[in-house]
């Protein structure tokens, strides 16, 4: 009952309201003469320095869902949940050079989305449209999962009602507030809130990592309790150590997730808002500090086992493992500090949800609205369309949580990773080479997407008794192997995507099939702050094809 959590609720509401007020104040923070431009509303003026970018990108990548779902995975399955730690370590060296090239070419041409880049690089509206739709579809369930994090906190505090709408009324109110200040302030709102969000999370985790062992008999006792639990679990892949059944899944999931992370449009939004190339370089060097925090957060799952936490139930009777961290704080910490922890999770949902909705709205505006609906749209009309679309995206995410099983939303996020990986050849490789034929890239995207969806369809979810789309771990036995091992669907799908794109490029080049030109030049990929911008690419591709350079 909520009456047993009055102090927690009071602390949560005070901090949540205070941060929401900060979101509206952000409209006047570094306010330009005209906010009605995507460079200003959607990218914060492209003028964020090292500290703001560090908090913004970190606040975007390490979400409320991370706070509750990674420990929940360790609570339920053990060591396999640690995949989130190595992938956030290996990603930064991988994208160090990629992101500075993306920033430079976007700075020169005024690109706002990755689809903008693809449109100019390959002179292909069709390929750009596919990239835009892929980004929007992959982002939607990710936004919904931020609501799942808030809902886990509200359920723990007993702030629920009877019936579908009443049960979700607090989330509806929270996201209405989020929609309002995102509409008015744009990217400046999550950039400003990220300072508060990250500070709260660091304080909560650093306190928890010392206090919990004290209460539970030390880390040795915590790991022993987790080991004892998994020894009684019949699942072959569960345990505090990886085994032969889950090692391949762990490796491919970590690598695939690393490759997918900065393909998400919201990840690139924070990068494109940076002032110059040096800001990005410094951030790629400093952001691994968040991975240390993530490792500490993950250990809360084992602490919940040692504390004998029993998850709350979903409406369908299944366990809601996302509640184990809020329940852990509720059981072992003073009420006031539990309220601070709940606020950290709730506010941790606002920053990424705002950036994700802005990124998805920008994709729609630049690559669907302007390309196909209103080619002569003014900057002000683009900004208005993007602001309205950001409201629609949030509404769609809210519908996911209110009317769809939360566990299905989690599975959809795993599917989202498989989907966004199929943009890797055009977006990531396209920054380094123009060799791949635009027709081959479209065919590779279709092959990877088709195979990925087929594989995902074959995976059941034993916990929810659902026959299809139950996760992203594909059994090798389905490929005819005599094995109990599984592999990450996204890894297989993107390998097939790349293979098809490469082979078909050879065939199309040999057949001299017409390819598009390239609106970018070599120097664009090394431009820095102060370099003059060029005019954006025309709305339709240039009629005369140009022979592509093999390496830019």
From TrEMBL:
Into which family does the record put it? Belongs to the sodium:solute symporter (SSF) (TC 2.A.21) family.
Annotated stretches, region: Disordered: 524-552
Q: Where is this chain compositionally biased, Pro residues type? A: 538-552
Subcellular compartments: Membrane
Gene Ontology CC entries for this record: plasma membrane
Where does the sequence pass through the membrane?
A: 6-27, 48-68, 74-100, 127-145, 165-183, 195-214, 248-266, 287-309, 336-364, 385-404, 410-432, 439-457, 487-508
Q: Which PANTHER family match?
A: MONOCARBOXYLIC ACID PERMEASE (PTHR48086:SF8), SODIUM/PROLINE SYMPORTER-RELATED (PTHR48086)
Keywords for the protein's UniProt record, in alphabetical order:
Membrane, Transmembrane, Transmembrane helix, Transport
Organism listed in the record: Dactylosporangium sucinum
Q: Which domain of life is it from?
A: Bacteria
Lineage of the source organism? Bacteria, Bacillati, Actinomycetota, Actinomycetes, Micromonosporales
Bilayer topology: Multi-pass membrane protein
One Pfam entry for this protein is SSF
UniProt GO MF annotations:
transmembrane transporter activity
Give the protein's recorded name.
Solute:Na+ symporter, SSS family protein
Q: Which InterPro entries match?
A: Na/Glc_symporter_sf (IPR038377), Na/solute_symporter (IPR001734), Sodium:Solute_Symporter (IPR050277)
Main subcellular location of this protein, as a coarse class? membrane
PROSITE patterns with a match to the protein in the record: NA_SOLUT_SYMP_3 (PS50283)
